[in-house]
Amino acid sequence: MLKKLVLTGAAGRLGSRLRAPLSALCETLVSTDIVESIEGLASNETYVAADLADLAAMTQLLKDADMVVHFGAIGDEAPWEQIHSANIMGAYNVWEAAYQNGVRRVVYASSIHAVGMHPKSECIGTDAPHRPDTFYGLAKCFAEDLGSLYWDKRGIEAVCMRIYSCAEVANPRAVGSWLSYDDLIQLVTRAIDTPVTGFAVVYGISDNDRAPVDNSKAQFLGYRPKDNAEQFAEKIFAEHPPLDPQNPADMCHGGPFATVELGNSGVARLGLKD
């Protein structure tokens, strides 16, 4: 069991689902976000309000930590200045604070949007070249490369999880790209308890029959997803018009993020249900 685990983005949609399972993996869980407080703290959990853009705050937060699970960021496309502060400088500050404190591993919530402009007709692997679809995706590319650099030069392990569609299956894209909440928890747990990871990239996706990515090179993590979105396929396809092979929003891994103007929300076009 880890002595101290830090979770950033603890008040977010996905981070909030990780708090309880992560508290079971460590003696002390320190959850952090920019909100003033959060409710329902576990008996071994404390909350610290802190800004990712503040290196000193991150350095203090990660003191004596074994690992950090970094889910804090703007979770959507946004103007460059906002992405640069929270997602790019925030990532640098987390890795630098990890280095300053001798933290062993960063478990990072990357995104499919780091490779979002690849067509889904190409079943891409974890070694696919970066091809971001937005400033948001570009920031994920930066953080992945940052993790690689800090592993090569400073020996900090990193598991970068390219999360796909972690929400209720509500559109045809999600029939292939779904990541269930249970599989998310399993993936993060494996990223923490695998003895040796070095620098690794893994897709955050469930065991979908129509999955458009190849996760085989990440099997050493022991991640074996249990859920399959095929159970929703018939209903979802009947409720939505056919996809357009000439529309990048239908044909690219990034979905609507592939067509939004830079700086404009992509999440708003996903029709997420939670």
From TrEMBL:
Family listed: Belongs to the NAD(P)-dependent epimerase/dehydratase family.
Key word Nucleotide-binding present: no
Keywords: NAD, Oxidoreductase
Family annotation (Gene3D superfamilies): NAD(P)-binding Rossmann-like Domain
InterPro entries: Epimerase_deHydtase, NAD(P)-bd_dom_sf
GO molecular function ontology, one term from the record: oxidoreductase activity
Domain NAD-dependent epimerase/dehydratase: 6-164
Protein name: UDP-glucose 4-epimerase
